[in-house]
Amino acid sequence: GVLHEDLRLLLDTALPPKRKKVVLGVGDAKMGAAVLEELGVQCQTGGVVAELMRGIRLHFPALVRGLTAQSAAKAQLGLGHSYSRAKVKFNVHRVDNMIIQSISLLDQLDKDINTFSMRVRSWYGYHFPELIKIVPENSMYCRVAKFIGNRRELSEESLEGLEEIVMDSAKAQAILEASRSSMGMDISPLDLINIESFSRRVISLSEYRKGLQEYLRSKMSQVAPSLSALIGEVVGARLISHAGSLTNLAKYPASTVQILGAEKALFRALKTRGNTPKYGLIFHSTFIGRAAAKNKGRISRYLANKCTIASRIDCFSEVPTSVFGDKLREQVEERLAFYETGEPPRKNLEVMKEAVVEANEVVAEVKRRQEKKEKKKKKREKRRLEALAAAAEEAAENSVMEENDLGAKKKKKKKKQKEPEESEAEPEPEENGVEEEEEEEEPLPKKKRKVMVEPEQQEEEEEKKKKKKKKKK
């Protein structure tokens, strides 16, 4: 019923000062009522307005300058996406979808475990029929059947293992005695292997069911603590699942919550003009079971009323607590005692005042803890950022040092390369001991120098040979 701030601002700026004479055409009657309540502007809704709105929507790109049909379609698509996202977007700790799925899976697991346990009983009963009466529980029967296997191999040594499974020495002794005088047929090893593997599957399913129940309990304490404190986790989860969500359950009146789950009986009673049902899913609560037969209808009506209050508190409170659920549970207990003994219960006003005081203290404590957690988180984030900055600085310094080292190494290598080149460029002394004059020329490589030196040596040798010939003559 409260107008959005953007819509209110738009209407304030768009409408003329004399608003009472203006009649605004609105496609939705609820929006028209909200505009009339907030701004005092008369709104008209009906078939003509809907047709006008449809025409405006169709020709909107032509009416607005610079708006194309493609951009209008994109805007409509974006609006649809944002609306859907807003509908889907919830607080992670307040999501009731997980509760709906887990309670459905829990009910399905109960059915499957019962079916499979009956299959194990009928299968293993051919070999050891007396075990069914001694161990009536399904999961325990599967454990015992898996442990025993062939009953002929059961002896005094395996008595301790049986006691650990059955948690009763008398039962373990009874199983041992029954195995010695059993009327069952013999069984082959292959059949035993199949029975043991199937029993192992049933045991794993029952263990998973326990874990799923713990998960459901933790989720209900986060999402609907008051409802779970009042009526229990399983029954509260069934109510939420049947309603569709916690918000839908909060919108229901107490009379609907009372017969939620008994729709078939209700419509049959309305059709045949018989008595309508007194309770639906809340029949599984302990309160109705403890009440006398004549008070079951009265206590179910009272309990449905308290369940509605608890679901509304859970749905619309910012910090959900179980204080109100505990107080409402106390009220139901007092009403139950009043029906049995006649002791007058406390007034609702007094109980709710106490609950509000306690809830404020709990909320303050929770907020204080949240602030501490946020401060610690900010400190951790700050330290992490400082560590990252320090690491980045160290990495930068290391990279600069490495670059300097590389530059120095390159310079040393260049110097080392220049030194051998200079030593190679020095002139070598001649064989006859005459040193050549130093010429200021660039040093030549070895190959070129050899090429230049060889013709001079040949000429000298030829001159020496000629001198020797002259001397001989």
TrEMBL record:
Subcellular location: Nucleus, Nucleolus
GO biological process terms held by the UniProt record: ribosome biogenesis
Compositional bias per record (Acidic residues), positions renumbered to this chain: 394-405, 421-442
Keyword Ribosomal protein appears in the UniProt entry: no
Alphabetical UniProt keywords: Nucleus, Ribosome biogenesis
Chain residue ranges for the region called Disordered: 392-473
GO cellular component terms, semicolon-separated: box C/D methylation guide snoRNP complex; small-subunit processome
Keyword Nucleus: yes
InterPro entries per record: Nop56/Nop58, Nop_C, Nop_dom, Nop_dom_sf, NOSIC
SMART domains for the chain: NOSIC
Domain Nop: 223-341
Gene3D superfamilies membership: 1.10.287.4070, Nop domain (1.10.246.90)
Signal peptide: none
GO molecular function: snoRNA binding
Its job: Involved in the early to middle stages of 60S ribosomal subunit biogenesis. Required for the biogenesis of box C/D snoRNAs such U3, U8 and U14 snoRNAs. Part of the small subunit (SSU) processome, first precursor of the small eukaryotic ribosomal subunit. During the assembly of the SSU processome in the nucleolus, many ribosome biogenesis factors, an RNA chaperone and ribosomal proteins associate with the nascent pre-rRNA and work in concert to generate RNA folding, modifications, rearrangements and cleavage as well as targeted degradation of pre-ribosomal RNA by the RNA exosome.
PANTHER family: NUCLEOLAR PROTEIN 5 NUCLEOLAR PROTEIN NOP5 NOP58, NUCLEOLAR PROTEIN 56
Record-stated family: Belongs to the NOP5/NOP56 family.
Quaternary structure annotation from Swiss-Prot or TrEMBL: Part of a large pre-ribosomal ribonucleoprotein (RNP) complex, that consists of at least 62 ribosomal proteins, 45 nonribosomal proteins and both pre-rRNA and mature rRNA species. Within this complex directly interacts with TCOF1 in an RNA-independent manner. Core component of box C/D small nucleolar ribonucleoprotein (snoRNP) particles; the core proteins SNU13, NOP56, NOP58 and FBL or FBLL1 assemble stepwise onto the snoRNA. Interacts with NOP1 and NOP58. Interacts with NUFIP1, RUVBL1 and RUVBL2; RUVBL1:RUVBL2 seem to bridge the association of NOP56 with NUFIP1.
Protein's name according to its UniProt entry: Nucleolar protein 56
Species this protein is from: Pardalotus punctatus (spotted pardalote)
